[in-house]
Structures are given as C-alpha cells and as structure tokens.
Amino acid sequence: MRGRYASAATGIGLGAFALALDQLSKRLALGALDRHDGHIPLPGPVDLTLVVNHSNAFGVVPIYGEVTRWGLIVLGFAMAVLLVTVLVRKAWPMRFAASFGFILAGALGNALDRLFYGFVIDYIDASKIGFHWVFNLADVSIDLGVALFVWATLAPAPKANAT
Q1: Residue 162's pLDDT is what?
Q2: Which of 22, 24, 34, 41 could serve as 109's disulfide partner, Cβ 3.0–4.6 Å?
Q3: Tally of CB atoms within 10 A around 54
Q4: pLDDT tens digits along 97-153
Q5: Which of 111, 100, 113, 112 minimizes the C-alpha distance to 141?
Q6: Per 3-state DSSP, what percentage of the chain is helix, strand, and coil (rounded to 5)?
Q7: What pLDDT was estimated at residue 159?
Q8: Span between the terminal Cα atoms of the chain, in Å
Q9: Are the C-beta atoms of residues 89 and 135 closer than 8 Å to each other?
Q10: Does pTM top 0.85 for this prediction?
Q11: Which residues contact residue 99 at a Cβ distance below 8 angstroms, ignoring those fewer than 6 apart?
Q12: Which residues are catalytically annotated?
C-alpha cells in the first residue's frame, strides 16, 4: 500500500482506534460513575466526575435545546466526511494523516454521544491541577490532532533516506 491509500488507511485506522477507545471509555465511565454518585476520586492529577454536556468545548455554543444538539451532530458528521474526503483524495505525510485521524475520532465520538444520548459524556476531571473543565477522550483526540497538525505544518519535513 503506497501513496494516498497508505495515508488514508493510517488516518482512518488511527481514527477508528481512537473512536473505539473513546466510546468504550464513556460506557465504562457511565457504568462506574452511576454506581458512585457521579464521582470517583483517584490518586494523582485527575478524578472521574460525570458531567452531561449539552453544549460544546468550554460551553462556547449557547444551548437552544434540540437545535443545538442536532446542529452539533450535523457539524460533527460533516467534519468527519470532510476529513475522510481529504484523506482519500491525496497522499499525505503520515504525521498529517495521523492528525486528521485523531480529529476525525474526536468529531465522531462527540457526535455519536449527542445522537444516542442527547448529550456528550464527559468524565475526566483535572480540577486538582487547576483545569476546571471536565472532558473525555474525544476531546483529547481533537486536541492531540490539532497539536499534531500544527507541529506537522511548522516542523521541517523529514528527509528521505538515500539508498
């Protein structure tokens, strides 16, 4: 597998793996946190705290009920379609393909939550270190994808090995 198919497979495969981890972690968090009144203190920098999020990251989008929910679902799926299209249309360096895959996973992970539950399941609570928003692995995936994209854009391209 070479060229665009290799980079597409990398991005989509990485995205599928990150999406599966996100969805599994949310199901496990829902079950565990439901039995512990929504909060499990942990040693270290994070706790588990169940928060149902009807808005988006940092609550930027005002909540207008089902309009917000369905608008964010459409936006998440549209982003996923765009990223898959970008991945299959040309060969990308692997670091770009990986960044697209992580963003794809995050967009789909939160869109699926909104579709099936009506809200996003957030559970990673880092307030012990001063971060006052509760988040999930889809959010981490988006952040990681954006950071990787910025790095891939700004870092010099690796030199090809001379054989």
Answers
A1: 54
A2: 22
A3: 16
A4: 999 999 999 999 999 999 999 999 999 999 999 998 899 999 999 999 999 999 999
A5: 100
A6: 65, 10, 25
A7: 74
A8: 20
A9: no
A10: yes
A11: 145, 146, 148, 149, 152
A12: 122, 139
